[in-house]
Design goal:
The chain has a 29-stranded mixed β-sheet that branches. Helix 3 runs antiparallel to helix 10 and helix 10 crosses helix 13. It is α/β, with parallel strands linked by helices.
């Protein structure tokens, strides 16, 4: 709504009288109609008429305070204005009462500020203050300023003052013709939540005065220093009230920069007490949604999830501090095990490159910039949990070593990171202009022990300006040149971690491969379609406080359009090629991404090069490099493409210049397998055969992707000297009853078998796995003597015996089936399945040192299974797992059937004999609920304690619901 300004005030009464007499008969009715439609919610002060005591202005039947500022020195119209000087800083204004959430106020005023600087202020008693400062237009040396505000959610019966103000507190600023329009929440249904809109939650932090003073003191300290430095010692006790629930928490201020502490909208870190959580999160943060540009950040998170990249849970809420409404906030999950649980990942270290030193000394104004990145500690979240668990600690130290080696240029990207995940992560940053997420202060990595690699956890893609300050096109991997001195400038040095990625050609190929996919209109539209309603609902929700907020898909994804213009080599620009002599061509690249020279020829014909040459990215910081490629005949053109793409672009060859640079050739890992004399390799059919007979492995057998592996009947593989079999290809092991296959370790030093990352089925028949240890080598970790990760496998008539690993069979994110199998005398768990779907038929598990069957997440079907002599649970389900039991017999065991953390076990027939504790259901993790067990027919004998059922858990036995213990 645009405010109309009043340009005419007093004129001579005689002129008015003559005018009225002459036009009353003709316009009288219209005049009355206009008067009858004037709004009671419009207020105008012309500064012309003071009250009797001189303390107020009176205009159009309304009273405005600070009438004592009336001045005849300057005026826009009429004779008077309101003068704000050092002695009287505040000008004519009005106070409004009974102000409620959703009310809209729009005010404007004319300002003349030759000697000072003035603002139009909005001040609410809910710790609210905003001001209009920027001139919208000018008239006769005066400029007009205005602002529109929406009262945020949570305000009830508040007061609001609107007034001009000499904010510089010097000179004199004149104000004239104040106009205010007020609309109540009932009149502005646009800003009132509807049932079909975004269903928000209100989070109310209750903090005692003593503790609130500590937070205020910390805030003042941050403003004095220039940034916020906090730790666990700054946490204060508080209560988090959500709906009718109260959660005991501790809280502190959050955010490194001061935008998180401005005004009344402070940012908070919230930590729930032990075994308590909100929305499945034990620790999280809330901040003004504007700090991350509202929906810009939310969409960034959705894109990461869309592509399977780990990210924090992020959405919008309404916040309140004690009785003070704070308005619209965003919440964000912290980096702890609950994040991994929610993402269905095994718990493990989450690493960061510490920015503590940077923020401690950032405000010192150091002339010589210290080595912030080089000296930064590589630390882990959940430090207490890491330190008290030897396996976690070993994983953390391994992950730390990987990241340290990469940072110092000792390892390549693929040796340290899940290259596919990192490439997607960076391509998504380019798609939505969220490169703020790749500041080293924001980098977070999860160590995937199964892969032995680091995976990115994306978050914090924007400042409060969102994509507005980015000049498209922006490519994260552009203009990275291995010869650039990273100390050219501090800004350049702060990005040297990112340089290490884009100096690796294999990584660039993968990055560009995904970038080319993500910037296509089809991809963007496919992503947008299912998110349109969610975006519109959230945008409407945000507009309740940020009135003018609009989200523009086209603007948000504008970088995709611009990248499409520059991703491929540009004619007349990217390549300069010269015929050096009859045997060679010299080439210079001015393209911002690496280019592969694929062929030479003419306009009509191409002659592919025997080996393509890759030209590094152009950088303005070093001289352009010249490359030489062999030539034949009289070529007139060469053909090239941005690596990672398939689009060939043709360039002319001119006649003139220098040295060659061809990337080193990397030996294929299949060559290493040829050193094993019991392995037969058919490269044409891509088949690897392990021959029958006795074979001892003193070094690991590493099998690459896209091969077929067959283990012949009668093969016996003895793993010694910590050797393991690690395969990225499916394995077919077809033993016979008279010639079984054996994979074992005679001295228990062998590290077992691992199959991962292949979509094809592996199959094991009549195979014996014995005396195997867990995988711990080449930076990869897995708990089992036999391990499956992101693959499929079938085991028939197989034996898992005498395992010295945590799990005899460890399965993660896979599909599996076991038929007629035996697990016997294993030191740890017999079978441990995580986030996997499987079936177990007609199998026997006996003498197990841990749990016989443990499943976390995923689904499991059990039929005709017998479990005997288990030191822990015969069947344990957790992490929302679903287990169906047709027939299960349990005997001579410590615990029978256990469900925890929202797992559901449904059994038709379960029989127990000599079991210490029969059925157990409980909640272990704060981010989950209790467990549920439902058994149609229970048979039991000699069970001292039939059930242990905690609060929030359920047991239904033979149709009867059992109450909690």
């Amino acid at each position: 709504m645009r405010i109309k300004t009043h340009h005419n005030k007093r004129t001579e009464k005689r002129w008015i009288g003559m005018l009225l007499l002459s036009v009353f008969a003709f316009f009288g009715v219209a005049f009355l109609v206009v008067q009858s439609h004037s709004s009671e919610n419009e207020y105008f002060c012309d500064m012309e008429t003071p009250s009797g005591d001189g303390l107020h202005f009176v205009s159009q039947g309304h009273s405005f305070f600070n009438g004592n500022t009336q001045s005849s020195e300057k005026a826009l119209s009429g004779r008077y204005a309101s003068a704000c000087s050092e002695k009287s800083l505040y000008g004519a204004g009005m106070e409004f009462f009974n102000v409620n959430a959703g009310d809209v106020f729009e005010a404007g005023i004319w300002r003349q500020a030759d000697d000072g600087y003035g603002v139009l202020a909005f001040q609410g008693d809910w710790n609210f203050y905003e001001q209009a400062t920027v001139s919208e237009r000018t008239q006769n040396g005066w400029d007009y300023i205005s602002k529109k505000i929406v009262v945020p959610i949570g305000v009830k019966n508040g007061t609001l003052k609107i007034f001009p103000y000499n904010s510089q507190k010097e000179g004199t600023v004149y104000f004239d013709d104040l106009t205010i329009q007020r609309s109540s929440a009932q009149q502005n249904k646009t800003f009132t939540p509807q049932a079909s809109e975004f269903e928000y939650t209100t989070l109310q932090l209750q903090i005692e005065d003593k503790e609130l003073k500590r937070l205020k003191a910390k805030r003042l300290e941050a403003f004095a220093k220039g940034n916020l430095i906090t730790g666990r010692s700054d946490l204060v006790p508080a209560k988090l009230i959500v709906n009718d629930s109260t959660i005991n928490v501790t809280t502190r201020l959050k955010g490194d920069l001061l935008d998180h502490l401005k005004g009344h909208k402070w940012s908070f870190r919230i930590v729930a007490d032990e075994m308590e959580a909100w929305n499945g999160m034990h620790e999280f943060s809330i901040h003004n949604s504007l700090s991350r540009a509202h929906l810009d950040e939310w969409i960034f998170h959705q894109l990461l999830k869309h592509e399977g990249i780990l990210t924090t849970r992020y959405d919008f809420v309404v916040a309140q501090l004690n009785d003070t409404p704070l308005g619209i906030y965003a919440y964000e999950e912290h980096f702890n095990f609950a994040l991994l649980d929610h993402a269905k990942q095994l718990r493990g270290p989450i690493l960061r490159i510490s920015e503590d030193a940077l923020w401690k000394y950032a405000s010192e104004g150091l002339k010589e910039q210290p080595p912030w990145l080089e000296s930064a500690q590589i630390s882990s979240f959940e430090e207490k949990e890491i330190l008290k668990d030897d396996d976690y600690l070993l994983q953390y130290e391994t992950a730390q070593n990987l990241l340290y080696a990469f940072r110092n240029g000792k390892k390549k990207v693929a040796e340290v990171f899940d290259i596919d995940q990192m490439a997607k992560f960076m391509a998504i940053q380019d798609l939505c202009l969220s490169d703020h997420a790749f500041n080293f202060t924001n980098l977070r990595f999860y160590f995937n022990a199964q892969k032995g690699r680091l995976q990115p956890i994306g978050y914090d893609g924007y400042s409060d300006q969102g994509t507005r300050w980015h000049q498209a096109p922006l490519l994260t991997g552009a203009n990275v040149n291995s010869r650039v001195d990273l100390k050219v400038s501090q800004a350049q040095r702060m990005r040297d971690f990112h340089h290490l990625f884009f100096e690796d050609e294999n990584f660039v190929r993968q990055y560009v491969f995904y970038l080319e996919q993500f910037i296509q209109d089809d991809y963007i539209n496919e992503f947008i379609e299912p998110h349109i309603n969610a975006i519109e609902q959230r945008a409407q929700f945000i507009r309740q406080e940020y009135t003018n907020y609009e989200f523009d898909w086209q603007y948000y994804f504008r970088n995709a359009k611009e990248i499409r213009k520059v991703l491929y080599p540009m004619e007349e620009l990217s390549i300069k090629a010269y015929q050096w002599n009859k045997d060679s061509i010299l080439i210079e690249s001015y393209h911002q991404l690496p280019i592969a020279i694929k062929a030479i020829g003419t306009k009509q014909d191409q002659y592919p090069l025997q080996k393509s040459t890759v030209l590094e990215s152009y950088s303005k910081y070093v001289p352009v490099r010249r490359y030489k490629i062999p030539s034949r005949g009289k070529p007139t053109h060469l053909y090239c493409q941005t690596i990672g793409t398939d689009s060939l672009v043709r360039f002319p060859i001119f006649k003139w210049n220098a040295p060659v640079s061809i990337p080193s050739n990397i030996n294929a890992s299949i060559d290493r397998l040829k050193s094993f004399n019991f392995i037969q390799i058919n490269e044409k059919s891509k088949r690897i055969t392990i021959k029958s007979g006795q074979h001892t492995l003193r070094q690991s057998l590493l099998i690459p992707k896209n091969w077929q592996v067959e283990i012949a009947a009668g093969a016996a593989l003895n793993l010694t000297n910590q050797a393991a079999i690690i395969s990225q290809s499916p394995i077919q092991a077809n033993g016979r009853s008279d010639q079984p296959i054996k994979i074992y370790s005679s001295d228990e030093s062998g590290q077992g078998l691992m199959i991962y990352g292949c979509s094809q089925n592996s199959s094991f028949t009549n195979t014996i796995f014995s005396h195997l240890a867990a995988i711990q080598q080449n930076g990869q970790f897995s708990d089992g003597g036999v391990n499956l990760y992101q693959t499929k496998a079938l085991f028939t008539r197989c034996f898992f015996v005498n395992s010295v690993a945590k799990d005899a069979l460890h399965i993660n994110d896979s599909t599996f089936e076991l038929n007629d199998c035996v697990f016997q005398s294993n030191a740890g768990d017999a079978l441990d399945a995580n986030f996997s779907d499987g079936k177990i038929y007609s199998s026997i598990l006996s003498k197990t040192g841990g749990d016989a069957l443990e499943i976390n997440g995923g689904k499991l079907r059990i039929q005709n299974v017998s479990i005997d002599s288990t030191r822990q649970s015969a069947l344990l389900a957790g992490h929302r797992a679903f287990v169906q039991v047709d027939q299960l017999k349990v005997s001579h065991s410590q615990k029978g059937v256990t469900a925890k953390d929202q797992a559901l076990i449904q059994g038709k027939t379960i029989e127990m004999n000599k079991v210490e504790q029969g059925y157990i259901a409980f909640q272990q993790a704060a981010s989950f609920g209790g467990g549920t067990i439902e058994v149609q027919q229970h048979k039991g004998n000699d069970i001292p304690l039939l059930h242990v059922i905690e609060d929030r858990s359920t047991l239904v036995l033979n149709g009867e619901k059992i109450t909690t213990n």
